[in-house]
Design a protein that fits this description.
4-stranded mixed beta sheet; 7 helices; 242 residues; alpha/beta
């Protein structure tokens, strides 16, 4: 082996790998803060995502995916089908199925007598997503402040995003981010996530001390957490791009 090759820079990873077993496209993402491989599904019909530390060679990536192909196949088989926010669909709102019906008005959807009336237009999805986001903001932001105050803390900011890997996050600077898809979950589950992130204002970890803060805020948090783990995939199956 030549000296030039011995000290040459590692080849950059491709943006994705296409597997034949199971048949799926895995997007590759390098994260400077990652300490290990993290493999997850990207969403219904959108393949998978593998996150890794910098400097990992391609052969190690391929070996990891080969070793975990069984898990990936099972996860894909259990993934719910895409759901669209179109007329006649049943959209969960606060955990309750709400019929979507076509309307003739413009602007935002309207909740009328237990039905969500969609605005006129060929693509109601983005309007429904915006409606859910505002509904989530109206409930989750006050809930976070309420739970934070109970712990003697105050977040520096609370924002709403469409995150895939987690329902919420809290930075060391006190910035809390929550998924607006929680507007589709039962109210008690929304409150749990708000309490979960507020507790991180006291403990930036998941230690026993952290869970003691969560239990102080919400003694019955366990079934709410279990619901999210069990049903959360269905919330991510909803597509709002059309």
């Amino acid at each position: 082996m030549s000296i030039r090759r011995l000290f040459s820079k590692p080849q950059p990873l491709p943006p994705a790998l296409v597997l034949s077993e199971p048949p799926v496209t895995v997007s590759l993402r390098v994260n400077a803060r990652a300490r290990r491989f993290t493999l997850r599904l990207a969403g219904a019909g959108k393949g998978a995502v593998l996150t890794m530390p910098p400097g990992v060679p391609l052969r190690q990536v391929e070996a990891f995916l080969h070793e975990h192909r069984g898990w990936l196949a099972r996860a894909l088989a259990q993934q719910p089908e895409d759901r669209r926010a179109v007329p006649d669909a049943l959209l969960p709102v606060d955990g309750v199925p709400v019929p979507l019906v076509a309307g003739t008005h413009r602007g935002a959807p309207r909740l009328v007598e237990g039905r969500l009336v969609l605005p006129r237009g060929p693509k109601p999805g983005p309007a429904v997503a915006a409606w859910l986001k505002e509904r989530a903001r109206a409930r989750l932001v006050p809930a976070v402040h309420h739970f934070a105050e109970a712990l003697g803390r105050e977040p520096t900011a609370v924002s709403l995003r469409d995150t895939r890997s987690r329902w919420g996050s809290c930075t060391s600077a006190g910035r809390i981010s929550l998924s607006w898809r929680l507007a589709m979950a039962p109210v008690e589950v929304q409150d749990y996530v708000a309490a979960h992130e507020a507790a991180h204002l006291r403990e930036m970890n998941h230690s026993p001390r952290y869970w003691a803060h969560v239990a102080r805020l919400m003694p019955d948090y366990a079934p709410r957490r279990a619901w999210l783990r069990r049903e959360g995939r269905d919330l991510h199956a909803w597509q709002f791009d059309a």
